[in-house]
């Protein structure tokens, strides 16, 4: 199925949207990981104000995603490569994982499923990424495919969903086709479909759900 681009924003409009929504996207990343923070708490921490009721590791996770987003804004038109995605993970999983910014070298499990993602091999990951980015599809579909590929591939020790989310958003922002953000009311359904995707390897229902509910833009 071809997922048409919902938006056609100019570079200025696209960056305006990203800078308007990036705090919501950081919060989305926290909710993906079931971290006990609210959106107002996330905003407050991103504004540099201490929130004593939030645990230090949650604060660290928020600041890590902040730094990943700063990197995207500074490099939005740079090529998206395996090395670039590793750099995003280097920000996102900093001080959280066994290693960060490098493809994992050992086995991992995923909570709630018996699916065991294989240990990634750099050349294979590179070829898979190139296939996603060069196939004849819209920027929106490439972003969705990359998100699904990265979440199920589990290429890093930690931060895979957040890394995939930010990498997918780089595609959308650089092409002016919106931003990928899952709001609170859709998070439970997202988690249900994601678990099914882990189990079956069939991501079409998840992809359609994200397309219908999580691609946001500017109505000009």
Structural write-up:
The chain is mainly alpha-helical and 220 residues long. The chain has a single domain (11-216), classed as Fic-like fold, CATH 1.10.3290.10. It has helices at residues 11-32, 39-46, 56-75, 82-92, 122-134, 139-153, 160-175, 184-200, 204-213; strands spanning 179-180, 215-216. It has a two-stranded antiparallel sheet. It is globular.
Uncertain runs: none
Number of strands: 2
> Structurally, how many domains make up the residues?
1
Task: Work out the strand percent.
Answer: under 5%
> What gyration radius follows from the Cα positions, in whole Å?
16 Å
Explain the layout of strands and helices:
Elements: H1 11-32, H2 39-46, H3 56-75, H4 82-92, H5 122-134, H6 139-153, H7 160-175, E1 179-180, H8 184-200, H9 204-213, E2 215-216
Antiparallel strand pairs: 1-2
Helix pairs in contact: 1-2, 1-3, 1-7, 3-4, 4-7, 6-7, 6-9, 8-9
């Amino acid at each position: 199925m071809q997922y048409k681009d919902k938006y056609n924003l100019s570079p200025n409009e696209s960056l305006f949207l990203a800078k308007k929504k990036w705090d919501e996207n950081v919060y989305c990343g926290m909710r993906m990981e079931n971290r006990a923070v609210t959106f107002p708490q996330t905003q407050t921490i991103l504004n540099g104000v201490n929130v004593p009721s939030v645990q230090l590791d949650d604060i660290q996770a928020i600041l890590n995603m902040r730094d990943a987003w700063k990197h995207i804004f500074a490099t939005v038109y740079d090529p998206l490569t395996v090395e670039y995605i590793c750099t995003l993970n280097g920000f996102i999983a900093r001080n959280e994982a066994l290693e960060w910014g490098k493809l994992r070298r050992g086995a991992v499990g995923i909570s709630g499923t018996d699916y065991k993602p294989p240990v990634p091999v750099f050349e294979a990951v590179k070829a898979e990424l190139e296939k996603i980015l060069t196939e004849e599809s819209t920027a929106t579909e490439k972003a969705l495919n990359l998100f699904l590929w990265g979440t199920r591939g589990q290429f890093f020790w930690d931060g895979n969903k957040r890394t995939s989310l930010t990498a997918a958003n780089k595609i959308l922002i650089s092409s002016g086709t919106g931003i990928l953000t899952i709001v609170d009311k859709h998070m439970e359904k997202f988690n249900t479909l994601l678990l099914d995707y882990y189990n079956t390897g069939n991501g079409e229902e998840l992809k359609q759900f994200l397309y219908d509910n999580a691609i946001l833009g500017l109505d000009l």
